[in-house]
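Two records follow; treat each independently.
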Amino acid sequence: MLGRYLFITALNLFLASTITYLSVPLVDKIGKNFGFVDIPNERKLKKESLTRIGGLAMILGFISVILINYLWFSETLNEEISIFPVLLLCTIFVFIIGLIDDKNNISPWPRLSFQFIISSIIWSQGVSIDCLNFGFLFNNFGYVEIPYFLSFLFTIFWITAVINAVNWIDGLDGLATGISIICSFTFLIKSFIAFEPGMILLSSAILGSCLGFLKYNFFPSEIFMGDCGSYFLGFNLAVLSIIGSTTNLEVINNSIPSKIFNVPMSLLFLFIPIADMTVVIFSRILNGKSPFLPDNRHLHHRLLLIGCNQKSTVIIIYSFAILASILGFVFI
């Protein structure tokens, strides 16, 4: 059984990365023809205009593999992959929001409102945070069941936060792509450890699409993933973190749900984008500025200010992400 899923994982990685890689040149032409081009300004490090909808190539690789997996395993893994059709629909919706944002720069509140709606849809299908594990903080303080309404709020907040955290970390060539590779690879390993077939398929599809894109996106990049790409990655990593970070628990009584959201593992697997966004938001608020106002307070900006070049900055942040992910396995 293990050998079978190792083969399937390798196949998913090959298909997703190949489809993404081969799609990039076509997506680059489409972006330039339809005006999806990143215009340099004083905040941006790139001084030449590049296509900013590379996420289209990534989502093509991702959707192709998820559809193949769903058709292939619809009978044998019906329960584990039942969420895939709704996941694909929501992925397309969040991608479209990012695509519109790439073209017209949507203001924060309408953008957040659409993200809330999409998060609500996926929550209604059972991708939800119902119970939290705080045992890592207090030995005698185990599981906390969340009321239905708070489950809704916590879930849409988490998904929306991760979407925007991945979007905000996308400030240097290859940074968001590489961080997403580390996150999805970490969840893939966890899925094999816990043997969760559905999560193996999902995480390998995300990982493959990122691997196929990194060659074009690493410094010096030839194309940007854009908001459409970072929203796509953030949404699916958020869903992966909810489903893949839960732990089965025998139901002792009706008050304890069967799934416990692993708080420390989730935070550590997604540590870099979550920590960066949190620090930036509080920094802006403490300085009397809007938390949504773009500035140069991100981790990569701070590393550049102390003398690191773009390539070394990205590698340093990769290293932090890998270290945090390794620590996350302590809490499995």
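The next record belongs to a different protein.
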Amino acid sequence: MKTAIMLRTLGAIVLLALAALAAAPARAAPMLRPAVTVDSGVIRLGDLFSGAGAHAADVVAPAPPPGSRTFFDADWLAATAREHQLDWQPASSFDQATVERATRVVGGDTVAKSLLEAIGRRQNVAGVQIRLDNASFRLLVPASAPAGLDVQGLTVDPRTGRFSATVAALGDNVTPEHITGRLVRMVALPVLGRPVAPGEIIARGDLASLEVAADRVTPETILDAGDLVGKTPRRTLRADEPLLRADLREPLVVHRDDLVIISLRTPTMRLTAQGKALDDGGMGSVVRVANTKSNRVIDATVIGPNLVAVTPAAQLAARAEESK
């Protein structure tokens, strides 16, 4: 009797267990993730396999550096699954997983700004810009890294302005990059804001400002806007380019073959005559002029539109004596 009761009880327990198993949701089989992007310094089992269960947080490999990726083949994946008690087998030897590191690109301009701030804590950097030796330099940092850069090992040559440093993203386990360049002192130059052709008179409204490296400035470079206003180009000049004194001249107020008035003044008299200009000339320039009556050719100074002046020989001689 007791045996029968025990058998019936055991049978009921088995039936209940089977019913519970039937009612419980089936656990999904682990599946390989063939392409993964991670945003930390390590790769976990759950990054590689969906349905990794209790071992999903297990660290299985270091993450690749920012901007790169790592490939895992079928043999490595199968061995890793066994090691972490994961019921998974590759379908073929072609199974693989690619893991890429989430990356943020820091451009050269941002790097230069951080370097200039670091140098500015040591010396005056007013009017100074940084030129990187590698103009296309960029820093690849983890996407989760905080804003800002860590500048270390900074050295600056005060004579040449050459500098050297390492820069890296803020945070742990980041690889610093070596960088070099130089400090460049900048100068603001007056330039044209639009193209100007010969014969056009430059006005203040035509001017703009351009910052250039001081080593591009020569003794002939125009530094003052006043030296541009009222002048005209000798050739067509483009906008936003440094200008030389030889690029400009006074506007022509005397033109070749035009009739001009020749003026001769002394302390006691003033004489005028008609002449013919043999050269073009701006204010203050010396041109050849032929007297229309005597055909004598003289040198005269342009003092106005179609107006030239001749200095008497006696006055020239007196000035020469004074200059000795």
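Discussion point: Residues 4 and 10 are 10 Å apart (CA to CA). How would you locate this feature using only the token line?
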